[in-house]
Design brief:
mainly beta; five-stranded antiparallel sheet; elongated
């Protein structure tokens, strides 16, 4: 019953019954008068589905409910605060919580299974352990007795073993409860009877998936033979990633002493959060469902601080406890209240929550302090200060305009620098010539008004036969840094010289040269000072020239995801995967496996076979089950299996 592995579910369902020798037992007939509860495989992330389970227990406190949780085929390696609060919610409602621990049909070493129990103990406050993949043949009984004894020594109060099918009487007492049925559809009552009736029904439990509705007659009969029942309409490959809409009905039908369902109690903890000038998000906490599953929520809105109310949504038709209210007016206060709905009726209203939408963004103000400095006979550098007010939307670049007639007419030098940088190098200019500039900021709304106007005159052309090309590197804010590799090529591609920034090349004047920029680790070339985005720039300098490379910083980590599919491309989960770097294992687990990798680092991925699933090829056709990758961005690799 593994959360992420359909092959293990199928494996459970495929275990063959064993032939047993005759045995002598003392009759101990189970009686329906003992309360039968629910044992749910709650393989969902804490949230609304966990709320449903807690609500059902609150509504029917006499019905025992056991929830099996499974963050990552076990507890995982670190504590998740949402699981901590979710477990506390279940405990507060009276739900018993078990942690998942696979035994590999007694093939996993006892020490490794105990280690998982230790990790559960260190990370989460749970009540017991669920031993999945339990053997059902003669021999491993002492293995499971030892595991149960160890669990009890850690303070756990309950152990459950899951052969998923019929087992041997010799397993009675090796764990507190045996799951004797886990399959699609309701079992025949004969599967729950037989030798089991010689023992108290508290020794047994069952799960049936693919069941579209609750059969009260089945529950009434099956309750005579098993201590816990769980039904769900979910299906393979993972029938435990949802909670059925009829869960409240299932619990209510098992509550032999419960009264008729009532309307739910009021939701609590309603909050309203302004997201933009036109959107407010709501969230709240579900409460007691009154013995009938919550089918939706009524949401009301007020624009006069709660004096009068209008219905925003009559029924969300969802158990979700969040809602996004869009299309609102800017700079406006909105108040909200929420009511829960079940088959009986509507609850009282929740607390009132209010929020004010943001203001509408405008184009940014003008940049200030524009200055121009002459660098050479062909280059003028510009610098300015970003606007004091960006108009309520982040500045995404600058428009730079130039005039050759002292501002009488203007032409666009750079339509959008697409950078936060407040500097710019204008190269390739004529010697001894006056140029005039102005700059405007750009945001998501549009282009703002122009800055002050500034002029500068390039110096006279140099007559020297030798000149220099200096290459500097800066980030997108204009802050200088060093160490970026550059190459100087002739016009025909011959490499003349190489070096690291800041780098100065001395060359004869009057010829064309190409300067080539390089990336390194997370530093990625963005543009040259004149706005050119090609990493190679060709110039024909007649005087000393300075070029500036602008770099952006790429992510320091990327995601490496390994997926498995059959030869038709249909997803398969649960195939064992190992990822190594320099021969050291850095990640392992079942597909789909996601790993946070370092860009530029080489990794080897090795896939394993399981039962009838045999590795066939990778997505690029390579048939070797070990694949080498060097990701520089988020990467997904696909392994194809023959079955």
């Amino acid at each position: 019953m593994t959360e992420q592995s359909s092959r293990k579910i199928i494996g459970l369902l495929a275990i063959l019954f064993v032939i047993t020798s005759p045995f002598t037992i003392l009759p101990h007939q189970a009686h329906a008068a003992t309360q039968t509860g629910v044992m749910i495989a709650l393989y969902t992330y804490p949230g609304s589905t966990w709320d449903v389970v807690a609500q059902a227990k609150i509504a029917h406190p006499s019905v025992p409910i056991v929830a099996i949780i499974n963050p990552n085929n076990g507890p995982g390696s670190s504590r998740d605060s949402n699981y901590v609060s979710g477990i506390q919610e279940l405990h507060n409602a009276g739900v018993v919580v078990l942690g998942y621990d696979a035994t590999g049909y007694a093939s996993n070493s006892a020490s490794s299974v105990k280690s998982v129990m230790d990790t559960w103990k260190s990370l989460y406050s749970i009540d017991g352990i669920f031993f999945d993949e339990m053997a059902n043949w003669s021999g491993p009984e002492s293995y499971y007795s030892d595991l149960t004894n160890y669990a009890k020594s850690l303070g756990y109060t309950m152990t459950v073993g899951n052969p998923g099918t019929d087992t041997l009487p010799s397993y009675i007492g090796t764990v507190d409860n045996l799951m004797i049925y886990e399959d699609a559809g309701l079992p025949l009552l004969s599967a729950l009877q037989g030798w089991h009736t010689s023992y108290d029904k508290s020794n047994f439990s069952m799960i049936a998936f693919g069941v579209n509705s609750v059969s009260a007659s089945f529950l009434s009969s099956a309750s005579n033979y098993v201590g816990y029942i769980y039904l769900t309409n979910d299906v393979l490959p993972n029938p435990y990633d949802t909670v059925p809409s009829y869960f409240g009905t299932l619990v209510a039908d098992l509550d032999t002493g419960s009264s008729s369902p009532t309307a739910p109690s009021q939701p609590t903890g309603l909050t309203a959060t302004s997201i933009s000038s036109s959107q407010i998000n709501l969230s709240w906490t579900a409460a007691n469902n009154g013995g009938s599953a919550i089918t939706g929520y009524k949401i009301e809105q007020s624009t006069n601080a709660g004096t009068t109310w209008s219905t925003l949504v009559a029924n969300t038709a969802s158990s979700s406890t969040t809602y996004s209210n869009t299309g609102l007016a800017s700079s406006t206060l909105y108040s909200y209240r929420v009511s829960a709905i079940n088959s009986v009726g509507t609850s009282p209203v929740s607390n009132t929550a209010s929020a004010t939408t943001g203001t509408i963004a405008t184009a940014p103000q003008a940049p200030t302090g524009l200055a121009a400095s002459v660098v050479s006979s062909s280059q003028i550098n510009l610098s300015w200060t970003a606007p004091a007010n960006n108009g309520g939307s982040a500045i995404t670049g600058y428009e730079i305009e130039r005039s050759s007639d002292a501002g009488t007419t203007w032409s666009t030098l750079v339509a959008n620098t697409a950078s936060f940088s407040t500097t710019y190098s204008n190269t390739g200019l004529a010697a001894s010539t006056s140029y005039t500039y102005r700059v405007s900021a750009i945001n998501s709304v549009g282009t703002g008004s122009a800055s002050n106007i500034v002029s500068a005159t390039t110096s006279a052309a140099s007559n020297t036969s030798q000149l220099s090309i200096t290459v500097n590197s800066v980030d997108l804010t204009g802050t200088a840094f060093s160490g970026m590799y550059v190459e100087l090529h002739t016009s025909n591609g011959t490499t003349l010289a190489t070096g690291y920034t800041p780098m100065t090349f001395t060359i004869p004047s009057g010829s064309a040269y190409t300067v080539v920029s390089s990336n390194y680790q997370n530093y990625v070339f963005n543009h040259w000072g004149d706005g050119t985005t090609n990493s190679s720039i060709t110039i024909s300098p007649t005087q000393n020239t300075t070029l500036t490379e602008y770099y952006s910083t790429a992510p320091t980590t990327v995601t490496l995801k390994v997926k498995s599919v059959d030869l038709s491309g249909n997803p398969i989960t649960g195939l064992w995967t190992v990822i190594k770097s320099n021969g050291v294992i850095v990640a392992k687990g079942y597909t789909t496996l996601t790993f946070t990798a370092t860009p530029g680092t080489t990794y080897t991925i090795t896939m394993s076979n399981y039962q009838n699933y045999v590795f066939d090829h990778w997505g690029n056709g390579n048939t070797n089950p070990t694949k080498t990758v060097t990701p520089t961005q988020n990467l997904t690799v696909v392994a194809y299996y023959n079955s």
